[in-house]
Structure formats: structure tokens, C-alpha cells
Design a protein that fits this description.
By secondary structure, the chain is mainly alpha-helical. The protein has helices at residues 12-19, 26-36, 73-109, 112-120, 122-167, and strands at residues 2-5, 51-54, 66-67. It folds into two domains: 2-67, no CATH class; 73-167. It has a three-stranded antiparallel β-sheet. It is elongated and about 70 Å long.
């Protein structure tokens, strides 16, 4: 078995070009890669930092991933940390986009024409209030999720440090 961590966002076609010696036997090996990685929901959209388990297969390039158990724990900890930071950055960016979109909608609703429309339609006013309330609930949940993710990241890196000390690395 080998471990492969994607360095950039990729898809199955690009991944196969990176991992396989040729495309002739690609489907069988790629099917095995998919089977070994049930945690991946969409192989057409692999984010940077995605960890994949690769099978021992003759059509894999020698440079494809690292054999399990090779290298030192510090290297693995570094790669896992980089992957976690990449996930955190993507998540933070998405939260910022959502907040910006919400702000833009609120600004648009403040225009004179929008105010008249909202004031003339009680159902619309009620729905806008419900949407705003839901956004606040979602924003609070996102903040809690970020805090949990930050704690998981901190604990994972601390565990790697503990294992390194235990193994004398």
C-alpha cells in the first residue's frame, strides 16, 4: 500500500496522469483506488490535501505516493498539517463568501425601490426576516464548526508530536 496526498485541487483524469504509467490499465487500478478510499465523495473534485490510499499495482508510477511505513513521522505530520491548513483555508474562504453575499443582499434591500416593495408585500417582509434569522443561525453553527475543526487540528498535531517523542524521532 501507498499513501498519496494531493498537492493541488485535481480530478480523476489529472490524478490518473499523475499516478499511472499508462492509461491502458487505468480503469482497473482506478477502481481499486476508489474502493480503498470510501472517504472520498467525489473523485471528479479532489481538493488539495486529500489523502488517498493507493494499491500495490504494477501500473502505478514509482513516484506515486509513499509506501506505508516509509519516511519519518515528522514528514507525515507535516503533510497532514498542511492538508488540515488547506481545508481550514478553503472553509474560511467559503464562510467569508457567504457573509459577503449576505451583506450584499442586505445592502440591496435597503434601496428605496426594494424598501417600497418589501413594505407593500407583508409575505415578502416575513420571508426576508426568516432568511436573515436563518443566516444568523447558520453563521453561529459555522463559527462552532470552525472552533471544533481548529481543536481537531490542534489535537492531531499534538498527537503526532507525542508519537514522535514516544518513538524517539
Amino acid at each position: 500500500m501507498r499513501i498519496f496526498i494531493t498537492k493541488t485541487d485535481t480530478d480523476l483524469k489529472s490524478l490518473s496522469a499523475t499516478l499511472l504509467k499508462s492509461s491502458s490499465a487505468a480503469s482497473g487500478t482506478l477502481d481499486r483506488v476508489k474502493a480503498l478510499n470510501p472517504q472520498v465523495e467525489d473523485f471528479q473534485r479532489l481538493a488539495a490535501g486529500t489523502v488517498l490510499i493507493l494499491p500495490d499495482a504494477p501500473d502505478l508510477k514509482v513516484s506515486a505516493g509513499s509506501p506505508v511505513g516509509s519516511g519519518d513521522l515528522a514528514g507525515l505530520a507535516s503533510e497532514v498539517g498542511a492538508g488540515l491548513r488547506a481545508v481550514g483555508a478553503r472553509t474560511a474562504s467559503r464562510f467569508e463568501t457567504l457573509a459577503s453575499d449576505h451583506s450584499a443582499v442586505k445592502d440591496a434591500i435597503k434601496s428605496a425601490a426594494a424598501k417600497r416593495l418589501v413594505e407593500s408585500d407583508p409575505t415578502l417582509a416575513k420571508r426576508l426576516k426568516a432568511v436573515d434569522a436563518q443566516f444568523k443561525v447558520d453563521q453561529k453553527a459555522a463559527a462552532e464548526t470552525k472552533a471544533q475543526f481548529d481543536e481537531v487540528q490542534k489535537l492531531a498535531l499534538a498527537e503526532f508530536e507525542r508519537l514522535q517523542k514516544l518513538l524517539g524521532q
